């Protein structure tokens, strides 16, 4: 990671590179790309557009903007060039965002992500310590590229920057290589699993009467979208039912574990959560 430098973007030429990264990362059409000019305007009014650089080359970026709450920002985009993934660039960008926000009195950053994308869940929930309490149905409407084929249902991740949960997650990251840590949530193997899976196919669910349970998602939802779109749609509808029922019953996403071929969210009752 020493080869990468993270800092706010400077000048129109650097902002212009962000357009190409959006298309490389998500396969967006020109109409779906957030243009450089808009990002420049937002950054000048209190937003953040920071980049990870390999020498002069921009390899990833994070983009957030102010909200009606002066102590909260919404992080709309984070992307890394495909050939630069897996070496901790995304984590480094988020840690820079956290430091930048705290220096300005911002204590919470929210963003949306696809709840069925295990790699994103691993970053957002396990590595960064986000919590999730809200499920947004078809939030962006139809999109192209890697998001084509199913409704754009999303989790709303809440990153409470100074909470004990986030501090603990960042300490775990600090104990090992920034791109990975072997520590997992204790007691996962004994947890009830709310949903039933037959091979790769969802097969119903029953919410356990328990303070804590797991929900399984596909091993590789992105691959299902490409190779088995009908099955991907089944998973989308199944996840929508499971998570909306869970949140309505007072549960919240507390953790995420990658266990062999299984991706498991850990849900807990919301009482007593630290949202400092």
TrEMBL record:
Any Pfam family matching the protein: Acetyltransf_1
InterPro entries: Acyl_CoA_acyltransferase, GNAT_dom, GNAT_N_AcTrfase_prd
Root EC class: transferase
Domain N-acetyltransferase: 4-153
Annotated EC: 2.3.1.-
Keywords: Acyltransferase, Transferase
Coiled coil location: none
GO MF term list: acyltransferase activity
UniProt keyword Transport, yes or no: no
Highest taxon in the source lineage: Bacteria
PANTHER family: GCN5-RELATED N-ACETYLTRANSFERASE, N-ACETYLTRANSFERASE DOMAIN-CONTAINING PROTEIN
Name listed for the protein in its UniProt record: GNAT family N-acetyltransferase
């Amino acid at each position: 990671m020493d080869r990468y430098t993270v800092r706010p973007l400077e000048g129109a030429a650097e902002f212009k590179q962000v357009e190409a990264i959006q298309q490389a990362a998500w396969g967006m059409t020109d109409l779906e790309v957030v243009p450089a000019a808009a990002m420049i305007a937002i950054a000048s009014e209190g937003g953040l557009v920071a980049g990870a650089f390999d020498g002069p080359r921009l390899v990833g970026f994070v983009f957030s903007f102010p909200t009606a709450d002066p102590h909260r920002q919404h992080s709309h985009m984070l992307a890394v060039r495909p050939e630069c993934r897996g070496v901790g660039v995304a984590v480094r960008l988020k840690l820079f965002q956290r430091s930048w926000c705290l220096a300005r009195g911002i204590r919470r950053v929210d963003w949306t992500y696809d709840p069925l994308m295990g790699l994103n869940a691993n970053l957002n929930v396990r590595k960064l310590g986000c919590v999730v309490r809200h499920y947004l149905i078809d939030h962006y409407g139809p999109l192209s590229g890697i998001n084509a084929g199913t409704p754009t249902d999303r989790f709303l991740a809440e990153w409470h920057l100074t909470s004990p949960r986030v501090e603990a997650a960042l300490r775990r990251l600090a104990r090992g290589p920034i791109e990975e840590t072997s520590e997992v949530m204790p007691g996962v193997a004994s947890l009830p699993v709310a949903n039933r899976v037959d091979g790769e196919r969802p097969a119903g669910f029953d919410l356990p009467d328990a303070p804590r349970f797991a929900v399984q998602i596909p091993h590789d939802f992105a691959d299902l979208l490409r190779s088995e779109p009908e099955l991907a749609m089944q998973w989308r509808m199944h996840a929508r039912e499971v998570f909306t029922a869970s949140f309505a019953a007072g549960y919240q996403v507390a953790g995420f574990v990658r266990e062999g071929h299984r991706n498991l969210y850990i849900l807990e009752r919301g009482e007593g959560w630290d949202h400092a």
